[in-house]
Amino acid sequence: MTRLRAILFDLDGTLVDTNDMHVEAWQRAFREHGHEFTREQIHSQVGKGGDNLVPSLLPDASKEEQDAIDERHGEIYKGELMPTARPFPSASDLLRRTRDEGLKVVLASSAGGEEVDHYVDLLGKELISFTTGKDDVEASKPCPDIFEAALKKGGLKPEEAIVVGDTPYDIQAAKRAGLRCIAVLSGGFPEEELRTAGAVAIYRDAADLLDHWNELPVARTADAAP
Fold this sequence. Notes:
The protein is α/β, with parallel strands linked by helices. The protein folds into two domains: about 1-15 and about 85-220, HAD superfamily/HAD-like (Rossmann fold), CATH 3.40.50; about 20-85, DNA polymerase, domain 1 (Orthogonal Bundle), CATH 1.10.150. The protein is built from ten helices and eight strands. It has helices spanning about 20-30, 40-45, 50-55, 65-80, 90-100, 115-125, 145-155, 170-175, 190-195, 205-210, and strands at about 1-5, 5-10, 105-110, 130, 160-165, 180-185, 200-205, 220. It has a six-stranded parallel sheet, with helices on both faces. Helix 3 (about 50-55) packs across helix 4 (about 65-80). The radius of gyration is 17 Å and the shape is globular.
């Protein structure tokens, strides 16, 4: 039996209540470049980094325009919205429980380094083993790069870790990296969509996950399928 050694936590929508803020920032960035999308259209893509989100909505735009929209989103979000971001209730308690159980607490997010550092300070730097984000890799979720980088950084095998995320893209990225993914509903994605993507368990939010800690799939056989 291979025991769990680490939990890889997504940030936006999972530990910090920021998905709606990102939707606002993206909507404004697209609008400034002459493109109008509904909040629903944008939310459906949240969880991806800008390198994958913008082409999903504007596949025919030039690389220069896509990059400019991505950069503008970051300016709006980090300059105006991120300072008001707050962790979900019990998010830090969940990380503390993870650490106290002897597991590595890893933040693995499509966010950039400045955002990740800000969230580390919000959640409690002393609780976190290490982080990986889009600045560490070539491609963000749903590509597996961020989770693969986390495994490499922690000296972990896929069977020794599990992901907690809130979007189908967390689940897809986890599966491509050979990892299982527990989903939470706090990011606003429908339960059925998360289940269809392949979540191994679904909880309401960080507090609900903490309340059901003893039910979590924290062990697996070494040859079990992810």
